Amino acid sequence: MKRRIGSQIMASILVNSIYAMINYPVVLINTLLAPLAILAVVTFASKGALLPVAAVGALIMSMVSSGTSLQQDLSHLKNDMRLQDMIVSSPTTSLIYIIGMALSEIVYSIPTLAFLIVLNLIFVKTTITGGFIIFMDMATIFTFSISLGFFLSTFTSDIIQSWGFSGILSPLLTTIPPVYYPITYIPFPYRYLAYLSPTTYASVIAQSQTGFYDPGAEGFVVSWIVLLAVTAILTYLALKRSRWREI
Amino acid sequence: MRIRTTGLSKTYDRKNKALEDLSIDLNMNGIFSIIGRNGAGKTTFVRILSTELLPTSGKGYINDADVVEQAESVRREIAVVPQEARPLPWLTPLQTVSSYLMWRGYSYREANEKGKEALRELGLEGKEGEKSRKLSGGQKRKLMVATVISSEAPVVFLDEPTTGLDYLSRKELWQLLSKMKRDRLIILTTHYLEEAEILGDQIMILDKGKLVDIGGIEDLRSKVKLPYVLKVYSENFKISEDEVQVHPVSEKETFVYGSAAKIYGLVPYLVTNKMKFTVEEASLTSIFEQYLGNEEEEKENEEKNW
Questions:
Q1: N or C: which end of chain A has fewer CB within 10 A?
Q2: Residues ≥6 apart with Cβ < 8 Å to A41
């Protein structure tokens, strides 16, 4: 039988997002709520001044949430439903499985992304080049979070441990770092701590394109280098070091 | 279909030996039952041969393809229902089967057609659109079997597929497996010895990771000391344990295990004394106990030695 890679990827998208959305429409609200809640708080607290920063920040959070959700979903499918064992011993590969599951998280987030993109188009002022840079920034942070999610999921042995990882990652990557507000709001020496999170670099890049922070040419390039390096390392680890087949 | 292992071993955490030097060579279609106590190595054996787990040493082959070196070609030949696998509760049975087929590379249309066919064959028609969480335990297990059977993989691994099911549900699944085994090799692990006896064309007994014996039920029976059982239904029946094993079941019921000569030698006495009785071949349960010893007796002996 001819193996269709498109079908194998589509299977993950159907199972992990489309069928879930069709069979339980309530999940459509699920992904929208977390970024919108923080967006609303930041906007009200700043009397609207930080709305454009928070709108881009909500997009970053949405990308990172895809990774933490992937980590939980994969862990659940592997440990509770034993689905991954069935997939491992079928004619598919870990790469096809992770691509399908990653895309399923994007499909799952479509309502949120659509809303946030409209919000950004209305409130965020940037150039076409700036728009392209923000898009690439989002694609990179998405790859980072998906790789991190897949890597962690292969080590989790039950859902409680998986919730633990998500509970740690979410605030460390999106709530505390300057994702929803400019990095200049953090006083020294705490600002150095913010640079421990890869999402800070993604935010610096996005905020530099919306006029909220000027890192200078050097800072802009360094942010890209750090973000790409961290993403490349995690993607390598996810593909090479994660345990697809158990030892 | 051929399964072959040479010196297959698995040690967890460098100290827990789950499989030790297991070598078998089977060329068959039908059902290959694997039995053994908890921790005997049944699941480890299945997980290694189904390419989910790497062995510590030794080799395993499915149709002459190495399960480690040629895992990709092995995976085209096999389908697995792991122990404790269950359908995703948010999917319908048809979505469950068709998405598994798509993961194997079928197109959406083919997967749906085959899925419907498999559900019909397993008596789940009319349930295609219901959410899987609403199915009974038996229906869920059937659905998992339908999922792998629909793939047309010639080698199917079912790791304890009937655990927790009531007798009638198990019987239904047995009938289905008997129907499905014609052109396939179904490797079935089970704790139910009756199930292994009814279904197994070949039976492998494992104990503490080691191969105890392998063969058809007749082969195994021919190798034990007490291959026959005499069941006597009388309170007056008394016998000394001379080359037979006597198990009083109740005041009016006694089972005597022994060789054909010993058992049939008792028949004239029973007829003369007008006692009700039956003579049967030893069941797999009795064979299993003779191979491995009665666990309770073993525990008692262990306690005495302690």
A1: C
A2: none
